Every structure is written in C-alpha cells, then in structure tokens.
Amino acid sequence: MIVRELNDVIGSERDVHGETWNSRRLLLAGEKMGFSLHDTLIHAGTETTMCYENHLEAVYCIEGEGEITVLPDGPTYPIRPGTVYALDQHDRHCLRATTQLRMVCVFNPPVTGTEVHDESGAYPAAAAAT
After folding, report:
1. Is 3.40.50.1240 the CATH number for 23-112+124-129?
2. What does the alpha-carbon distance between residue 79 and residue 99 come to, in Å, rounded to a whole number?
3. How far from 93 is each of 28, 41, 69, 116, 122, CA to CA, in Å?
C-alpha cells in the first residue's frame, strides 16, 4: 500500500514548477500503478498551451475558474469545480485560468517525476516509455 500526504510532497523533488503551473506529483511511474496522479495549481491570469503527444490525461477541477479551448479553432469549455475533461485524442489545447485553478490530473502512461513541457507543449517521449 502507498500512503502519501500532499504536505509531504510540497517542497520536495515531486513539487515541479512551470511558468504557469505547479504540479505536486503524488504518484509516479516508479510506484508502478500504470498512471501518475498530480495535484496541480494553474496560476491565476495565465494561459498554458499544451499537447500531450505521448500521454493521455484526465483532469478534474476542484477549485477555481477558467476555460479550455481545443486548438486551433475551438470549441471552448468553461472550467469550474466539478468539471472533468479528458484529452483522449492527444488534443492540442489552451488552458486559461481566470482565478487559480486546482486540478487533479491523471496521466497514462505515468510521468517519472521531473518532466516539464517541451516547446510543443508535451512531456518528452522518454517519460512515456518508462
């Protein structure tokens, strides 16, 4: 059994920061669950363009408000507590945070720990191969 508290992750090597986000990685590839689980903050007033070419992601909003647009031409969906979205087609998207968003994110395959988005908005393929 794996038991971990968010407070133990904050400030550790599992607390990974990007320019517009902060991903607290609760479960990683090394735990061999077949997915990774993240408690992610998206900073208020930011836009983040992503396209997970090597991963599938499901996201559940537990705090804040914003919107997600499928690129290049939409549609755009509101994001608020209780909203879930799944990037089941490796969708290129832009996430806009009106207020700070707190999201629970699941990645398949799992990330290994320190990944940040590359220039295309993806996590590297090496992370997907682990």
Report:
1. no
2. 11
3. 24, 17, 5, 16, 11
pTM for this predicted structure: 0.91
What ranges do the domains of the chain cover? Answer: 23-112+124-129
Helices (H), the chain: 6-9, 125-129
In degrees, rounded to 5, the angle at the alpha carbon of residue 121 between the alpha carbons of residues 120 and 123 is: 105
48-52, 100-104, 106-110, 120-124: least confident range: 120-124
DSSP-based three-state secondary structure for 99: coil
Average pLDDT of the chain? 93
Peptide bond into 75 cis (omega under 30): yes
Q: Which of 47, 85, 44, 49 is nearest to 64 (CA)?
A: 44
